[in-house]
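Reviewer 2 asked us to include a model.

Predict the structure of this chain.
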Amino acid sequence: MQGLKAKIDDATNAIRKQYTRQPKVGLILGTGLGGLADQIVADAKIPYGEIPHFPESTVESHAGQLVCGTLKEVPIIAMEGRFHYYEGYSMQEVTFPVRVMHALGIDILLITNAAGGMNSQYQLADLMIIEDMINLMGDNPLRGVNDDELGPRFPDMCEPFDQKLIEIARQTALEVGLPAHKGVFVAVAGPNLETRAEYRMLRNMGADCVGMSTVPEAIVARHAGLRTLGFSIVTDMCLPDALEPVDIEKILDVAAKGGGRLSQLIGALITRLD
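Predicted model (structure tokens):
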């Protein structure tokens, strides 16, 4: 983390030239969630390339800009497109935007992703509220010399996702009539999808959904003292005995459907977050 604080300062200073409001909520938009950014009344839309030390997203379905403004009058800063370890970035690069959003003043981080469903009770386009997580990415964004200004050397992870926020999300989903499970998310490095044997292993470990993101950001959010709420959209079913070859176009279609549901849920709960 040596030198990280100076890079954070460079990025936040550049953003504040275009966005002076202090955001309450930070939002990381995964695959299928680009439409939620359109609901934000934007004060500024800043391409990642204009922010010092920001990586650039190489995933085609990710727009690659910071949307700063309000959602239902709640000050918010949203990442329209995220970074992944499999793109070749380091864990510190993947999580750098979380550090920057924290420096800009957010109290709460919302993380979304598209994921494979391993729980047979789930269906395509279902939503899962993440209540716990497993890191199988083989790396950690806190590895190296710790900067005590950014967080403690050994952050506690007994509650990586805030239980009060999880309950608010669950109640809101019930009220608006959206199917939303609570479950465990496991992150792997990617970019290949898993084998039948790997899906069996992950399910036996207690995971309900699998993906290639979210866990690094949640670790850094916990390190920084942020309250975190996470959601997965089930975009493909990963049941070993009924596994089919992946169809990326189908996954994107399902992600768009689930993204519409999650956009509705986030829009309904954003004013309830405290």
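The two ends are 30 Å apart (CA to CA). Residues 22 and 105 are 6 Å apart (CA to CA). We have added this to the supplementary material.
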